[in-house]
Automatic annotation (TrEMBL):
Keyword Metal-binding recorded: no
Cellular component GO terms held in the UniProt record: cytoplasm
Annotated protein name in UniProt: Histidine ammonia-lyase
Catalysed reaction equations from the record: L-histidine = trans-urocanate + NH4(+)
Length: 509
């Protein structure tokens, strides 16, 4: 995969997605001028001797304590060491790589006062696969993601651990092995590195990209479930959705029509089915999935803006040699976006589980009980549906908004916080849960369609079903079910199900 060029302030959502999926990172050389100008402005501010927060004062509640020039380097090192107070399991390497890239793009805008050497080290660590070990817990999403970013900064000064090629090593040793020198922090640099929303934003973007794949796969499995139940595609008629005007709903209905176009199973329903209306889990797919898509797009717009902003404090303005204290580190926009993503992920999984429940119930689907040719002797899909229900319920519990919570910190200096890190960190796990639900639906829907042979579905859905069947055969008699579920979930997570269908499906853009 080629390197992704970062032009600070102008990075697209597509670019961040590429980095999440493993692209390298290269900073646009045009940022060299603003970086140097910002560092020079800090030097002039220090030379003036007036107290400026974060440069020659203490931090937070200790901002009134003036620090002498001889102690400025120690001040910056101390804030990194003292704030590296995270706990819990290490964050996933791809999340921290994305966090580092976000921090690089922020610092390179020339408003943070860091030196070119600091930028160069961060870029080199990304290039050489040196990822700081960052505990996942410890941020409340205001005053920045202090603890997680401090662990990153600590690794840059040779303290803590770095993961490289799958191995955890002492940071100093890993840097030395990569022919890199630990950073000597100058005035303001420690604070600039550990202040900001990059940990919350990286987790939120990761959840967003997972939700996008989940959404598209659920359109495919939803269409396949409609076929398995010999449901109608009339509710997907574009005229219905044009009257309501929601973009996501219109596009979701169009996608479902495209996926089912030309289906012989659908044609058979027109001839001999006496049902007038299908259950909501089939009929209202455009309304539910479309609303989820609209919410995901709104979250994407917020996160793209956040990713291109500068969120540390204070901010340096070289044209006037000022360092202005504000509150850009408060991650409320990220918290709201994460909450919306969580709601969308929860609902995508929820309606999918209802389709699974419908398919295993012969009174609703018209199919053999629990989708097995010999119910009673075999349990078929009885317990996979229970597993899907368990996962959906777990996601419901996790979907409670994090942004409505707050707890004062730092002796009430930081008296309102966003909890963006909490809201963002749950998203990958929620997406994993919902992905497993979609995987179970894929198995159930394909099994349901098997009962309609020799009738076949559309070209797109038959291609998707064939892709599954290459890994998982039809379930005739009960067998060890777990490997089937794992294989189907992997197909959903990888994006290969959507690729196999070959239909252009709506996404984030």
């Amino acid at each position: 995969m080629t390197d992704q060029l970062l032009t600070p302030g102008e990075v697209s959502l597509k670019d961040w997605r590429s980095i999440w999926f493993g692209a390298g990172v290269r900073l646009n050389p045009s940022s060299a001028g603003p970086i140097a100008a910002s560092a020079q402005a800090v030097a002039r501010i220090v030379a003036r001797g007036a107290p400026v927060y974060g440069i020659n004062t203490g931090f937070g509640k200790l901002a009134t304590v003036r620090i002498g020039d001889d102690d400025l380097a120690t001040l910056q090192r101390n804030i990194v060491l003292s704030h590296a107070a995270g706990t819990g399991r290490p964050s996933p390497v791809p999340v921290i790589r994305l966090m580092m890239a976000l921090k690089l793009a922020s610092l390179a805008q020339g408003a943070s006062g860091v030196s070119p050497e600091t930028i160069a080290l961060l870029e080199a660590m990304l290039d050489r696969g040196l990822t700081p070990v960052v505990p996942a817990q410890g941020s409340v999403g205001a005053s920045g993601d202090l603890a997680p970013l401090s662990h990153m900064a600590a690794a840059m000064i040779g303290v803590g651990e770095i993961q490289v090629e799958g191995q955890r090593r002492p940071a100093a040793d890993a840097l030395q092995a990569a022919s890199l020198q630990p950073l000597e922090l100058g005035p303001k640099e420690g604070l600039a590195l550990l202040n900001g929303t990059q940990f919350s934003t990286a987790n939120a973007l990761a959840g967003l990209f997972g939700a996008e794949r989940l959404f598209q796969a659920a359109l495919v499995t939803g269409a396949l479930s409609t076929e398995a139940a010999r449901g109608s595609d009339t509710p997907f008629d574009g005229r219905i959705h044009a009257l309501r005007q929601h973009r996501g709903q219109i596009e979701s209905a169009e996608a479902l029509r495209s996926l089912m176009a030309g289906s012989a199973i659908r044609a058979s329903h027109l001839v001999d089915d006496v049902r007038v209306q299908d259950p909501y889990c089939l009929r209202c797919q455009p309304q539910v999935m479309g609303a989820a898509l609209d919410v995901l797009r709104q979250s994407a717009a917020t996160l793209e803006t956040e990713a291109n902003g500068v969120s540390d404090n204070p901010l340096v303005f070289p044209e006037t040699d000022e360092a202005l204290s504000g509150g850009n580190f408060h991650a409320e926009p990220v918290a709201f976006a994460a909450d919306m993503i969580a709601l969308a992920v929860c609902e995508i999984g929820s309606i999918s589980e209802r389709r699974i429940a419908m398919l295993v119930d012969p009174a609703l689907s018209g199919l053999p009980a629990f989708l097995t040719p010999r119910p009673g002797l075999n349990s078929g899909f009885m317990i996979p549906q229970v597993t899907a229900a368990a996962l959906v319920s777990e996601n419901k519990q996790r979907a409670y908004p994090a942004s409505v919570d707050s707890i004062p910190t730092s002796a009430n200096q930081e008296d309102h916080v966003s909890m963006a890190a909490h809201g963002s960190r749950r998203l990958l796990d929620m997406a994993d849960n919902a992905t497993a639900v979609i995987g179970i639906e894929l198995l159930a829907a394909a099994q349901g369609c098997d009962f309609h042979r020799p009738l076949v579905s559309s070209v797109a859905l038959e291609a998707a079903r064939a892709h599954l069947r290459a890994a998982v055969p039809t379930l005739d008699d009960d067998r060890y079910f777990h490997p089937d579920m794992e294989a189907a979930t992997t197909i959903v997570r990888s994006g290969s199900l959507v690729a196999a269908a070959g239909v252009c499906l709506p996404g984030l853009g």
